[in-house]
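Supplementary Note 2. Why include the ligand at all?

Several targets in our set were suspected to adopt different conformations when bound, so apo predictions alone were not considered sufficient. For every target with a known small-molecule partner we therefore ran a joint prediction. The input for glutathione is given below.
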Amino acid sequence: MDTLYVYEHCPFCIKARMIFGLKAIPFQLVVLMNDDEQTPIGMVGRKVVPILQTAGRFMPESLDIIALIDSRDPPVLTGARNPAVAEWINRGRSLLYREFLPRAAMAPFPEFATTSARAYFLQHKENASTPFVTVLENAAAAVEAVNAWVQELAPLVQKPDAVNGTLSYDDIDLFALLHSLSLIKGVQYPASVQTYRQTLSKLCGIPLLDPVAI
Ligand SMILES: N[C@@H](CCC(=O)N[C@@H](CS)C(=O)NCC(=O)O)C(=O)O
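The joint prediction is reproduced in token form.
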């Protein structure tokens, strides 16, 4: 069976997990400790996830993993992309991840199960010019900006199970981002977006982070 090495907070890992869920292909999910440098370096020469172990080899890069798994018959990511979806993502991605990282640092992700693993994340992800505490102190204004951005997604969602009507790489990018977004408390989802993220969560077998939102 294929094994996928991940961190649960990692959006690239969500993308790789999605293709297994969408195709109902069984796989083993292994969460690495965030400060475990040796395991990924031993597998692919650098500290990175996701890593797929398949047919006796190790493979990094979420898009390569997705392409490999989707090349098994029948492919599911057959729909055309809509450039407006990528444009929407690009408009808000840096705002989202500025808000996401300090919350991730506090969330009960298994890759942070030890103090040293959580400390490693803080050391590597906290930006000296904008400490996490400063981001969180300004959360109210940021969540308002996030909400304005999320409203603009509503008209782009064509179907609950595929943003453009047929599953495509836009769904991979969009659900991975909405998964990260679900860690942010106070985000208000327009009806079409709410139904979409809940439907994709079920189809992919990847729970949203709503219950642990901060
Ligand atoms: N291009 C890679 C990017 C993967 C990536 O940036 N992964 C991050 C986690 S989100 C990582 O492993 N960073 C090293 C670290 O967190 O220490 C992909 O698409 O798979």
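The chain has a mean pLDDT of 97. Residues 7, 10, 12, 47-50, 61-63, 124 surround glutathione (CB under 6 Å). Comparable summaries for the other entries are listed in the accompanying table.
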